Structure formats: structure tokens, C-alpha cells
Amino acid sequence: MIHFAWPWALALLPLPWLVYRYAPPALAAEEAALWVPSLSLFGAVAQQGVRRPGRLQILLAVLCWLLLVLAATRPQWLGDPIELPVSGRDLMLAVDLSGSMQTRDFTLGGETVDRLTALKAVAGEFIRRRVGDRVGLILFGDQPYVQTPLTFDRQTVLTLLNEAALGLAGDRTSIGDAIGLAVKRLTDGGGENQVLILLTDGANTAGQLAPLKAAELAAREHLKIYTIGIGADRMEVRRFIFRQTVNPSADLDEKTLNAIAEKTGGRYFRARDTRQLQEIYAAIDELEPVVRDHDVFRPISELYVWPLGAAFLGGLLVLLLPLLPSLPGRRSP
Q1: Which helix H or strand E contains 307, and what residues bound it?
Q2: pTM, entire model
């Protein structure tokens, strides 16, 4: 939309007419002072040398004045409002990519899928809702690594999460090292509200740092950890000529995950299916609400240069018109 920063400049529009209407003629005093009776015979000759402005010159002069007043109002183009990133939370997701995450005990869109696929779908919606938070992504297996550092660019985090592949970080699970890496990254980020969401389907089987020791380090740095244990409790497996019901989450160390959450002031959640996983992320949204206060920026483009430039060109044309051949609307001298 177009906005005028100085609309009061429109009051200058009638200024030329007021000068013409009420100001005394500039030559009246000179004629009274220099009048010589003996030179009256030359009046006709002098009158013939006066050039009156033509209609086209007058119209151009009026147009130039209108353009100058328009430029004086300082027209601006206001762009669409842009929400600036606010200083919300530093939120890191730590996702288990060990071999057990390929277990197909989740349902998504009526189809049976592996745990990682269900996680990507649900966590993706969670990331999209975290407007104003800096979000990062850690993937861990035998060792953890930072897939995405803390950033306001949630789309990049989503893209790299969707590109994560099973076994990319090894087949074992290093929960303690993943927490330790998150502590280091979040501490380096310097945020005040620091949250880690750790999702795994097993127990700590690799790494140098014990999970509970890592939790103590996190608590010391005021890092809150929400742990999520993923995996169904019951699953039917075909065995030659019969089906057997097994527990695909037998290796899940819920006791340790619960202790990690308690030490850091977070909570432990259990996701046995896609619906429960969605409810967990919705609960985290309530426990760690997005900061709603935000700054709005509207980009401004100055437009006054266009009418000012047009007025300049029009003024040049007014000056050049007397030098041009006779045109319609101009009076001959």
C-alpha cells in the first residue's frame, strides 16, 4: 500500500495561484520610477517584444508544480508485514537412528510404517509450530552428531530431519553422549530457555558418558530434558506356520529415561503408537508454549524520486518550448 509520510505538504498546492492573485505585479514599481514621457512612442515596440506563455507551457508548469508537491508529501510503498524472529527458546531434538528404529510397529495414514517414519511425520508438525524458537537437530547411534545447529530456519531443520536415514549413525545407542553434545551446543548458544527433546526406543549401549551423569551436567546448565520412549508393547510376528506375539520394546530402558527427565525438571513420555506420539508433542507445546509477543517489520520503499524526477524533466521542457518550432496551443510572438 502507498503511504504519505508528510501529507501536510498538500497545503502548498494553491501557493502559485495565491501569488498570482494577491501579489502586486513585479514591474509596476519599475515602470512608475523609470517612466519617461519622451519614450512613450516606443511602447508599441516594447509590447511587441513581450512573449506570453502558451497554453502548453502553462499546463506543463501546473503539472510540474503538482509533481513537486506530490514529491514533497514523501510517498512510500509499505510492503507486507514481516514477523521478526523473537528471542524464544533454544530447542534441540535428539533423534535415535539405531537399527531398532526400523521396527514396523506404527501406523500412519492406514499403513504400517517403521518408527522413524512415524517420528518424522509427527515431529515435523511440531517443528512447524515452534515459531520464534531456535531449533536444532542431533542424530545419534554409535555416536551423536549435530545435523542442524540452532537456527530460526525451521524449514531447513525439517528438510534435514526428513533426509535422516536408519543406520546412518550406527546400530547402537549412545544416549549419554547425545545429551552431552546437546549440553555443549545449547550452552554455546547462550539461550535462557533451553530444552532438549530426546527420543529413543532402546537403552544406552554405546558412548563414553553415562546417561545419568549427562543428566547431572544438563541440570547444572539449567537444560530441561523431555524424554520420549517410542515403540509398541505388543506386536504379532509370523513364525513359519503360526503367529507369535512379542514385545518389540523389550530393550527400552524406561527407568533411565524417567530418571533423566526428573533430574532436569522435565518429563518422561511413552509413545506406543502414532496417536500417542502426537499427544506427547501437543503436551510439550503446552508445557513449553511458544512466545506470542513478536515484532513486526514492514519494508518501506521511497517513491518520491519518481515525481521529483518527472517534475525536473517537465521543467526542462517548459524552458525549451520557446526554442522549439511553433506548436499547437502556443501563441506566436
Answers
A1: helix 305-320
A2: 0.62
